[in-house]
Amino acid sequence: MIAFVIRRLAQGVIVMLVVGFIAFSLFNFVGDPVALMLPPEATQADRQAMRENLGLDKPFYVQFATFASNAVQGNFGISLRLGRPVSTLLVERLPATLELAFVAATLALVVGIPLGVYTGLNRNSWLSRVFLTVSLIGVSLPTFLIGIFLILIFAVWLGWLPSFGRGDTVMVGGWSTGFLTGSGLKALILPSITLGLFQLTLIMRLVRSEMLEVLRTDYIKFARARGLTNRAVNFGHALRNTLVPVITITGLQLGAIIAFAIITETVFQWPGMGLLFIQAVQFADIPVMAAYLCLIGFIFVVINLVVDMLYYFVDPRLRIDTGAAGGH
Amino acid sequence: MNRSSWIARFLDGDVFYSFKRSPLVITAAVVCLVCIVAAVGAGWLAPHNPFDLKTLNLLDAFTPPAWTENGKPAYLLGTDDQGRDVLSTIMYGSRVSLMVGFFAVILAMVIGIALGLVSGYVGGKVDAFIMRVADVQLSFPAILIALLIDGVARVALPKDSHDTLALYVLVLAIAASGWVQYARTVRGSTLVERNKEYVQAARVIGRHPVAIMFSHVLPNVLGPVLVLATLHIGTAIITEATLSFLGVGVPPTQPSLGTLIRIGNDFLFSGEWWITVFPGAWLVIMVLAMNLLGDWLRDALNPKLR
Fold it and tell me: Could you tell me which residues come within 8 angstroms of residue A98 by beta carbon, excluding any fewer than 6 positions away?
């Protein structure tokens, strides 16, 4: 157990080092940071002073260590485009992205699981076929097109819902939330559907295939033979056993939701971290890019670590052959 | 074997039989063919040349599709803000989309096959390292990897060579985000193949390991890879469209379907829906048809599923 955790931790640390190194090289080798920070009329002496001040005359590994220790403390410098500290920008944008991701994930689970159970239990009904066909089309549709079509229908033609921004937000202890105002909630609807639709179809298909698998097992037959009601068998025995993979996949998909939020945020001009990143790429705003790179790398490493460990706790089979699982 | 007997054998075979039996697959194949012909032949088939500035007329800008009230028969699907024919821009745009998708898949395949072969055949530390990298990459969504590589490369490249290099960067980014699947598949089959007699025989007669890998093992592990590739093309095209939509893809001088959708998106609110809806619909139909064909091919070539 401990060896497993340590191996995974070491892997995570290596990934973070690689990501950090890419961010660092972006910072130091793409363009001259001194030229970026000083006004064009600066003298040669100014440049030299700045160079020493930034530690750019030091050997490479010392610079990387300085960068890493700054990064760990959340210090990524100042955005070239907006002229404000990157950490402040990210903290400001974090609530928007997290609220969107949270609503999208909830939507995917709350709608996806019942649909999966229904299509699993009634696999030959026409309604199941409709759900499955629609989900196939949903998988083929790129996220940004779903967003555009939703905007066209519900914002432009019908005029029911807003098509961009977060609406009114309220500050609750440094966290700007859109959950407490009518316009904030309305603004959440279209982006969260756009973001959640793919995960929804994924969860639906997963629950369906797991249900089909579990319903074939002996203990379900035994439960039926004991004369339990359909309800007890389907929900008490079958559904409960399908939830283990669903929980892990959902955990892993959290990362995907945060990544796909970049696209959704661009379509809906949602003021989150993803939009900040895309604008940073377009304007070559290196500090913001570097910070986002590190942040997203960190989020993924943490999610994978937690899901791996959850798996380990949930599935006893993994505990027996740790050697085989880790050493392939 | 002469040519006609090869065709006759194909027409008699299982694959063609299952093709004939499914109207959905036939439709998908026809749609794919139409899309490819329209894209490749855009220079001859398109009703207008949207990049020939002389033929553009700003008075024709924002003409709605031909069947609506203010439509003009010359512009079947309407025109955009610069008076360019939407149908023609779609045809030229799908050429860029298909090209980027196609080359990205080829490159991903080459990288994946090479690494998979080496990983499976050499084994040991090399194998462990390559597979670890693959594991790590698989834990990130492909679109994010492509976006990060593309974004970093755009910033790293000098400004003036941006537009000329953008296409290559894009192909590289999409390929780098998709090689893992190929590597894993090839590694799996290589592990099986390398213990077979023909490989041992080749080793005994003293052939170089590289020669064994590429001229003996490779032909025997290629089947599943080709099926993967047909399914990957749709994904690659969507990735390209997404990156172009985000404004970090192909340069605006060579618009792909994603760029067209991005441009049209600005006019959604002023009522000019056709500028964005038609390229979007074209993209979806093309990718859907390709995915259906790929799905069918996977099932048709897999005897276990029959």
Answer: none
